[in-house]
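Re: the pair you flagged

First of the two:
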Amino acid sequence: MCYNERMIYECQPEDIDRIYFVINEAARAYQDIIAADCYHQPYMSMKELEREMKHMTFFGWEVNEELVGVMGFESVKDVTLIRHAYVLPEWQKQGIGSKLLSHLKGLVTTSRLLAGTWANAYWAIDFYKKHGFNLLPDKDELLRTYWDVPQRQIETSVVLGHIEYTENKIKCKEASDAVTAGKGTVSN
């Protein structure tokens, strides 16, 4: 680990207490924004976080050896999901979420990159739009297919897809397939 420097790293099981703290502190922003029946404290219980950590990888942003931001990365079927993106309030608006998202985009090996959030969390929607994501019209189907969330959350959420990324990934695959088949060459 680097000391006194900001860095991204793959969170480990021993980081669970700090991940729990970051998520629940940052999620306080949802109070009075999302449907009252969907908001509770803690926002994510330790038991739920333990379940989530079994099937996704969390990446963290550390400052002075302290985790201040997290973002989950989960491959499900033929897509990659960005999950549980949170930065402590005092560290927001400093590019931490952007750097975590950029790092995770570089790890994607699927044809689609999706993120889900609450429909009323305008700041989260704006964040994803700023980074090349667009709202998708088939959000209910996507939430049912790729997420394990209750019906009420499906009703009150949106899904955004990184369209540009998907188009570039398809073009790269087509070019690669053409070269492999001996039908062309790759040029800039």
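Second of the two:
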Amino acid sequence: MFQDEARFGRMVRPKRCWAPAPLRPVLSNGYEREFVYVYGAVSPLAGELDWRVGREMNTTRMGEFLAQVSQAHPGDLIVMVLDGASSHKAKDLPIPQNMRLLPLPPYAPELNPQEHVWDELREKEFPNRVFNHLDAVIRQLHQGLPRLAADQERLRGLTTWPWIVSLNLNAHYNKVAKVLSEGDRYGRGRDSGGT
């Protein structure tokens, strides 16, 4: 899974919009600096999205999100790929037993497909909208995130990049090769000579 946080707020991000000629579109603008944070983790191959909305971004909230993801996927070993935010590297960050953290190289957000999930959410749920209160932003997130999470094909299309697919295939190939060279779960190796 690939994890990232994003900030959503009352400031408008103007986008292109259409109006019939000769009219010009009118766009409201807001300058209020109020924000809410969203933690997200996407599994590109499965097309699954886990998310959590919070008022702050820190080590405590990151630990709560990791626990939420761990509980949602109890039978899986989760390799969580994430950036180098301080809350991801904190010594007091609780990491669930079924999870391993794998950092991305520094200054490389383009390697994280979760960034595309945020772009899609902003484009489809927040274009040219001014919110009167931060609660309205939170309501919009609670409407838009489940819609996006339910659309597995759209998530796959946004996040399943060729290098991610090849990583998965290589990992699967290496696992099979290891089993064949070491023996199967019954202790029979490829060259054991046993039947």
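The domain at 2-165 is CATH 3.30.420 (Nucleotidyltransferase; domain 5).

-B.
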